[in-house]
Structure formats: structure tokens, C-alpha cells
Amino acid sequence: MTKKRALISVSDKSGVSEFARELVNLGFEIISTGGTKKTLQEQGIAVLGVSDVTGFPEILEGRVKTLNPFIHGGLLAKQDDHSHVKQLDEHGIVPIQLVCVNLYPFQQTIEKPDVTVADAIENIDIGGPTMLRASAKNHQYVTVVVDPSDYPTVLAELAAEGSTTLETRRKLAAKVFRHTAAYDALIAGYMTDLAGEETPEKLTVTYELKQGLRYGENPHQQAAFYKKPLGSTFSIAYAEQLHGKELSYNNINDADAALQIVKEFSEPAAVAVKHMNPCGVGTGKTGYDAFSKAFAADPVSIFGGIVAFNREVDADTAAKLHEIFLEIVIAPSFSEEALAILTGKKNLRLLTISFDGGKKAERKMTTIEGGVLVQDQDRYSLVDAEITIPTKRQPTDAEWEALKLGWKVVKHVKSNAIVVTSEDMTLGIGAGQMNRVGSAEIALKQAGAKAEGAALASDAFFPMDDTVEAAAKAGITAIIQPGGSIKDADSIKKADEYGIAMVFTGVRHFKH
């Protein structure tokens, strides 16, 4: 029986010895390189070195070993084409029927905090992608395996039929091109950052499947959840689920919204979110205190919502959470007592996220039909703002605290956005209305009598003085907004008329 050839060269060596041994049992001759060759030989598997095939030694510290016609002729030949077979015979090239390759660990290398540019560059694989692409292109004749999870399928088909099916080879080839495209996308991203290019002529990104989803925003929409390699670990994509049902599409969006808001606070804070808008935010000396205020801010809307904490959830807080229906609770950790209480609700999802990872700057991508919009995340805070106070009255210390809270929250509310706050909790939130005074009326109505002496934050300037008028009549004493309207003077005059202190930040926080 004429032996078939399999070329094996892998960085991920999990299961490769067992795979190679079975291939030998099925009549394959194994070709290998470097570390893979050594691994297989240590397991007693007969291996032919690449240099034995090419008649040429590995050179340039192993940078050149498989880039040779004796390898690529064997990979790219149409094995039922007379002229191709004739050329192989003329040059003494033996066809290769199976390729098992995975690549230098570029991602794992650049993940290291102390990685040097030289290390990163050295871990850009050249021969591996070339062999993979050649084999995948020629999948009519060549079985190409890049993922150890595919070893059993390949071995089973080879054992049963003597070859893999075209359907399997095509699926494996598609996986190869996804793999090499993702690999190149990571390299392109690294090199683009290294070169300081902010708006490259082509945007190359890659994501890895985290989980399939039952459906999207609605049951008739298919959906899946992908995470970004090397992405921020301070994110829902890297959360650990301790309990509850599988996350849904809407859960993930809402959980992300809650996390982004609670990140704004260094003091103990709790955030309740519904449909990607906060419905209650509270701060306090403890997580329990903060959640009590977030709940009191809107005890109706929190029903079926998401709650995020920036402190461990203890037993007292868990008992309070247990009293209401929630979809998700997010926290850095849960005490054992808290877990015992909350896991009593079988469907409640409990997520933990490391709050020690810091705030990694990432760009935000929003898809539109036929394209994608890319922008920096809105990290702008009052620390960055050029504050001016155009009114006759300055805010009091207590008003400043309320204004700071409002400004942290309003940038996370859908525009047009208005937030009414005290020093330590939201009192009313108006989101997504087509005119600003409409959002103000919603927020002020929700705040009710609590608006007396409270502060109001607006994500963008007032186009006219009607919002100031509505705020004043509700009892608001301090306002924070970007300023910059051609009618700022009218709003300033109205604020002075009612004795309101108004702060201009010079920065808007639209969120669509």
C-alpha cells in the first residue's frame, strides 16, 4: 500500500501525539519540524524531518524551513490532474494529503505586560500561514486541520472511508481561512498601534465566539455573543457567571450599560438599569446603603432590571435584592452568605467581574447597514472639563456633589438626557425624548417634591430657556450643562432670575 503523507507542525501540542500515532496506524508517513518532531519522536512515533524532504537545512534561526517547492508542490498539486502529477514525478515531489498546523503564539506573546517589539515580531508566523492557506486552497485534495478539536472527526472519517469527505475538507478549509484572517488581524492591529496610525485605510478586527444565543432583541432574530481577543477584562465579555440562566442578547446589552455606569464611581455605588438606561443610581458608605438609594430612586422601573455594584455583595444587601425580581446582579464578588441567599432564585444571573483590571481604552464600534462607525469611548469627566460658572450664584458644596453625580450619570443616558440628583442618588431621569424640555419634564415629574433643592444635569446645551424655566418651577437650585448655544444668554438670564447656580462644562455627552 502506497503511504500517504501528513505534515504536522504545531505550537499547540495538545493531543498531537495521539493524532499522529493514529495517522501512522492508518498508513500515513509523518513529516514534521522542530519542536513537534521532537515531541513525536519522544513518543516513539516515526517522523521524517522537513530537511529530509527538501534536501535543504533549516536556516535563519528556523525562519526558513517549509518555504520550499518540495513542500508546497506537495500541498498545491491537483492530485488527479495528469500534468500536475507528471511535474511532481519529474521533480521528485511527493504529494501531501493531510496538513496539521497551528501558528506561533502571537496573541499569547503580545498579552505579556513586558513583551518587547522584537519578541512580538519574532512570533509572527510565516511558514505556518503559508502552508495553511495553500492546503485550504487545495482542499479538493488536502485535508487541513488547524484545531485539535477536529482531530476525532478527521480520524473517524479516515478510519471508516480511507479519506475525509469533501464536505468535511471544505468546512476545515473555511476554518483555516478564518483562523489565518484572525491571526493577521491581530498582527495588523499590533503593527497599526506600533506605527501610531489612528485611522488606517482598512480596519481589521477579529472576535471569538463566546456563546451562541437563543435569539437577539426579539425571538425572530438570530444572535451570538463574540468577545474581543486582548479586549478589556473589565467587561461583560470576560465576566464569570456564578449562577442563573444563560445570558440573553438584551441581558448582555443591559449588563454592559450597568457596568459602564458603575465604573464611574470610586466610592461604594449601585446602579440599576432597564433597557440600557439607568433607572436608579445611589452612592453611600456601603453597598447596602448605595443599593437602598438606587432602589428608592425608582422602585417601579427596577422590576426585571439589572443591578451592578462596585463592592462585594454581602448578606444584608443580598436579602434586599432577594425581595425583588431582577434579571442580573453584577459585582466584584459575593460573600458566601450572599451567594446562599441569591442562588435560591434559580433564574437570577449572578456575574462577577474583576475591578482590578483598570480601564483599558477601547474604541467603540457601531454597525449600520453596509458599514461601521468607529469612535473613542466617552471617557471625558469633570476632571478634564474647563468649568465656567456664568450665573451670579456659585454652587454650594452640597450642590457641587449633586452636580458631579448628575454629570457622571447623564452621559450614560440616551439623548436627549436629563438627570435630577441629590448628593448621593438620582431622583429623576428623562431619556431619549425628541426635545430636551420633554426629557426634563419626565425627570422632574419622577423626582416630584424631591426636586426641591436638587440639581439637574443635561447631556447637551439648552437651545432655549424653557428647560431652565421648568427646572426652576420644580425647585431645582443648580444646573450643569455643556453650554455653547447661541441662546446661552437667555438660559443664564433665566437662571439668575430664579437664583439658580449654573455650571458650563464645555463638553457634551450625546449617547444614541
What does this protein look like?
Helix content is 37%, strand content 19%. The relative contact order is 0.06. The chain has helices spanning 16-25, 34-42, 50-54, 69-76, 82-91, 106-110, 117-122, 127-137, 151-161, 166-195, 249-262, 287-297, 315-322, 336-342, 397-410, 436-447, 466-474, 488-498, and strands spanning 4-9, 28-32, 48-49, 98-101, 143-145, 208-213, 223-227, 240-243, 269-274, 277-283, 305-309, 326-331, 349-352, 363-368, 371-376, 417-421, 426-431, 455-458, 478-481, 501-504. The strands form 5 sheets. It has a 6-stranded mixed sheet with strand order 8-13-12-11-9-10. The model has no long low-confidence stretch (mean pLDDT 93). The termini are far apart. With 512 residues, the chain is an alpha/beta fold.
Gap between N and C termini: 67 Å
Low-confidence stretches: none
Helical content stands at: 25-40%
Q: What proportion strand?
A: 15-25%
Largest sheet: 6 strands, mixed
Q: Give the overall shape, derived from the CA principal axes.
A: elongated
What is the residue-mean pLDDT, rounded to a whole number? Answer: 93
Global structural class: alpha/beta
Determine the number of helices (DSSP H or I, runs of at least 4 residues). 18
User: Biggest sheet: strands side by side, in what order?
Assistant: 8-13-12-11-9-10
Radius of gyration, taken over Cα atoms and rounded to an integer in Å: 30 Å
Main features:
512 residues, alpha/beta
Summary of the model, kept short:
The chain is of the alpha/beta class.
Fold topology:
Blueprint: E1 4-9, H1 16-25, E2 28-32, H2 34-42, E3 48-49, H3 50-54, H4 69-76, H5 82-91, E4 98-101, H6 106-110, H7 117-122, H8 127-137, E5 143-145, H9 151-161, H10 166-195, E6 208-213, E7 223-227, E8 240-243, H11 249-262, E9 269-274, E10 277-283, H12 287-297, E11 305-309, H13 315-322, E12 326-331, H14 336-342, E13 349-352, E14 363-368, E15 371-376, H15 397-410, E16 417-421, E17 426-431, H16 436-447, E18 455-458, H17 466-474, E19 478-481, H18 488-498, E20 501-504
Parallel strand pairs: 1-2, 1-4, 2-3, 4-5, 11-12, 12-13, 18-19, 19-20
Antiparallel strand pairs: 6-7, 8-13, 9-10, 9-11, 14-15, 16-17, 16-18
